[in-house]
Amino acid sequence: MFISKTFLLAALAALKHTVHAAPASEVDNLVVIDTQDSPFGPLVIYGFANATTVATEDTSAAALNERACGSNDVTCDGGNVPNAPACANLIASLSANSGTGLGVSPRSICQTTNGNTCCVSWHNPAPGLVESMLIAGANAAYNGCVVHGLSGLTQNTVLNGVCTKQCLRVPA
Questions:
Q1: Where is the secretion signal located (predicted)?
Q2: How confident is the model at residue 7 (pLDDT cuts 50, 70, 90)?
Q3: 62 in a domain, yes or no?
Q4: How many CA atoms lie less than 13 Å away from 56 in the CB half-sphere?
């Protein structure tokens, strides 16, 4: 019986450290809050219906190591793998709409190309965020993971002065 308990504890410890590329999940009560035109079709912007909840929801970004913030450390995952051409189009659309402001609530932007959806999502609220600020983390995830058939998560990503996580994936 001792061996079984030890094995179970080891398995639970391993699961605790599993990383999935999904900082802003649709199960977190995200709703469609806007759509925008772009060169490759509409961008669908998801966020919280109640923006006042978002502003106080997560203050853990301050706990991230400030010296490492901005490094866009990439972790790849085999879950929620996006289509590479769809993600390339999403990144190009973010660039084309580079000056477009997003407000406080949004946490995910998705685009569908030829039936394939790719989303860029971020964990912490970043007031004053514009679409161009999502490009560095999206490119890091794209080049480090998506082109290799995986979803990508960047940690220590700076979005308008907020240290956070960002990912490139299909919706869960």
A1: 1-21
A2: very low
A3: yes
A4: 3
Cα dihedral 123→141→36→25 (10° resolution): -40
With beta carbons less than 8 A apart as the criterion, state whether 125 and 54 touch: yes
Average pLDDT over residues 24-42: 78
Does residue 54 register a pLDDT over 90? Answer: no
Helix ranges (H only) for the chain are: 2-16, 51-57, 84-96, 135-144
Is residue 77 a part of any domain in this protein? Answer: yes
For residues 25 and 79, the answer to whether their CB atoms sit within 8 Å is no
3 within a domain of the structure (yes/no):
no
Which residue range is the domain that position 121 belongs to?
19-169
Cα angle 116, 118, 122 (rounded to 5 degrees) comes to 165
Integer Cα distance of 121 and 137 in angstroms? 10
Give the model's pLDDT for residue 121: 96
Closest CA to 111 of 131, 125, 129, 128: 131
Span 60-65, mean pLDDT?
A: 50
Q: The tokens of 170 are what?
A: 């299909």
* Residue 10 included in any domain: no
